[in-house]
Every structure is written in C-alpha cells, then in structure tokens.
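Checklist before submission:
- one chain only
- standard amino acids only
- sequence pasted in full

Submission:
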Amino acid sequence: MPSFFLAFAAVLLTSIGSRDQMLMAQLSGGLGRRLSLLVAGWIVAGLTAMIMALAGEAAAHILPQSGKIMLIALALLLASAELAWPNFQPAAKEPTRSLAAILFVLFSRQLGDAGRFLVFAISAATAAPQLAGMGGWLGGGAALTIGWLMADQWDPRIALRIVRRILAAVLFVSAIVVGLSARGLISSI
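Returned file contents:
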C-alpha cells in the first residue's frame, strides 16, 4: 500500500503547474467545462500511469539489485530535469474540439513528465506496479481535475515555477543519494 500513496502524492505534487495541467485548464477555458474533456484526461492519466508502472516492473525484473537502484536514480534524475525545464507555452488560440486529438496531446505530454518517471521509479523499487499505477492514475487525474476546474481562472503568472524548481532540487538530491548508494559510495538506503 505504501507504493499507492507514494505514487499518488508524487504525481499530484509534481503535476503542479505541469504542461498537461496547464493544457487542461486552457482547453476547459476555451471549450467550456465539458465532462468528456475531464473523462478523456482521466483515461489518459490511467493509461500513462499503468504504462510507466509496468515498464518499471519489467525493467526491475531484468536488472540486478545495483542496476535496479541505478535505474531508480536515473528515473529520479529525469523527473528532476523535467521539473526544472522551463514551461512556457502560449495559450491555444483555437483549441481543437476533436477528442482524439486532445487524447493524443495529453498522452504525449504525460508519458514523459516528472510524475510518470516517479511512477516508473516507485514501481521498480517496490515491485508493486498495480498499486503504483493506481496511485499515479489518481494523482494524475486529480491534477487534471484541478486544471479543468480552474479553466479561465488559471493565471500563468502564478509562482508555480518556484514550486517546480524546489521539487526539481529535491528530486535531484534524491537521485544523487540513490545513485551513490547503488555504487556503494554511501551506505545502502
């Protein structure tokens, strides 16, 4: 059960001001708060979380213990880099009304975001992909719901960049500690 709660919290926290959350707010503002938009977001959040959870489990099964720990460190490092990457995206002038296009764009933004890298790492570390995937799904869906509800009230000038940089720094330090542990340079975690 810890992998469920850890994945839920990790995805929800790292989705603050994320590209997919901002996109959901823009689409909800431009198209109205259509329930189909929210349902599409939840479907994509579940799909991407389960893909990364299963990938984490598969990678953990083929690697030795030290390799698995290095893989977790790499996932933490990638999540840190994604959080630190500048998130400047102009609002869509004429958002598409195609649900398939919206699904595709949300899927592409979520598959490589920090939250999904953390689901990968949690799944690899705990060998509980179903629980990590479910936690990631609920965390990602909740983040998209917040964006959907914010719609026109979403202000890109909100200081979310600072929060994302702090989270990036925390994940970077975590990646270094886990990586050094895998190499045996510090005591095992």
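Reviewer check: The chain has a mean pLDDT of 88.
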